[in-house]
Amino acid sequence: MTLTEALPTVNASLNALSAGALFTGFWAIKTRRMSLHWKCMAVAFACSTLFLAGYLTYHALSSVLHHYAGPWRPFYLALLTSHTILAAVALPLVLRTIWLSAVRRSYAAHRRIAVWTFPVWAYVSVTGVLVYWMLYRL
Q: Contact at 8 Å (CB) between 68 and 135?
């Protein structure tokens, strides 16, 4: 198996790890485990960053275009469209949320934006796995 062939599976795994870290981090902050929350968010950010690098690498190296042609095509296209739009929205939200917490130490502002960042980021991570599954495994 070549790198190009392996990257979609690696990228989906990174999305799944990011989602797991996000949901664990959400639980941690709700139960006031601040240190665990910070670690989970760092893992989610690292996984998402590695995913983005892998995604861009895959599309730079691969000339193969995959098209979903299964019976769920309208659902797939709606999922892919919402995933793509929210992925573009997620990046600046994530960067701003991290900046407010890690750099500025402005926790009140961090909380205000995190209530928007978490659902968008979680949706993108989970739907990324679903898109992969439908495109490569279904």
A: yes
Residue closest to 83 by CA, chosen among 136, 120, 134? 120
DSSP 63: -
**pTM as predicted:** 0.93
What is the C-alpha separation between 66 and 133, in angstroms, rounded? 12
Q: How far apart are CA 82 and CA 49, in angstroms?
A: 20
Q: Please give the DSSP secondary-structure letter assigned to residue 134.
A: I
Q: Tell me how far CA of residue 107 lies from CA of 38, 90, 117, 137, in angstroms.
A: 12, 19, 14, 41
Distance, CA of 133 to CA of 8 (rounded, Å):
10
Provide CB contacts within 8 A for 128, sequence distance 6+.
11, 12, 15, 51, 83, 87
36-72, pLDDT tens digit by residue?
A: 999 999 999 999 999 999 999 999 998 888 889 899 9
